[in-house]
């Protein structure tokens, strides 16, 4: 639903930090923080994902991540980590081919 109704832009990766949330697979989830200039108003803005069960830092070789934002309700956004999750399996990064 979000992907169909959202416009996307690239944000700069800032950090990945462990959260205080309930542990998952024996580890606390990690939250990805990124920042970008909001294309709608030109203001700097920070974005956070919902949480990952691994540290995505080694996989962020480009140091950027895609952010999708709902134009009708800009407070609703999605930090797209699907590609990162596809590169990660069984608690370790997959080898790139």
Keywords:
single chain, 97 residues, mainly beta, five-stranded antiparallel sheet, two-stranded antiparallel sheet
What does this structure look like?
The chain starts with 6 loop residues before the first strand and ends with a strand. A hairpin with a 7-residue loop joins β4 and β5 (77-79). The strands form 2 sheets. A 5-stranded antiparallel beta sheet has the order 3-2-1-4-5, with no helix packed on it. Strands 6-7 form a two-stranded antiparallel ribbon. With 97 residues, it is mostly beta strands. The chain has one domain. The chain has one helix at residues 82-86; strands at residues 7-18, 30-37, 44-48, 64-69, 77-79, 88-89, 92-93.
Helix/strand/pairing category: mainly beta
* Beta content: 35-45%
Please tell me the total number of domains: 1
Total strand count, please?
Answer: 7
Rg, nearest Å? 14 Å
Shape: globular
Instruction: Please state how the strands of the largest beta sheet are arranged side by side.
Output: 3-2-1-4-5
H and E order: EEEEEHEE
Question: Topology, please?
Answer:
Layout: E1 7-18, E2 30-37, E3 44-48, E4 64-69, E5 77-79, H1 82-86, E6 88-89, E7 92-93
Antiparallel strand pairs: 1-2, 1-4, 2-3, 4-5, 6-7
Gist of the model:
The protein is mostly beta strands and 97 residues long.
């Amino acid at each position: 639903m979000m992907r169909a109704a959202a416009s996307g832009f690239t944000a700069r990766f800032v950090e990945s930090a462990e959260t205080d949330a309930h542990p998952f697979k024996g580890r606390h989830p990690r939250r990805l923080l990124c920042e970008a200039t909001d294309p709608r108003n030109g203001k700097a803005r920070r974005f956070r994902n919902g949480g990952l069960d691994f540290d995505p830092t080694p996989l962020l070789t480009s140091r950027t991540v895609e952010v999708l934002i709902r134009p009708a309700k800009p407070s609703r956004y999605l930090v797209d980590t699907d590609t990162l999750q596809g590169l990660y399996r069984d608690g370790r990064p997959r080898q790139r081919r």
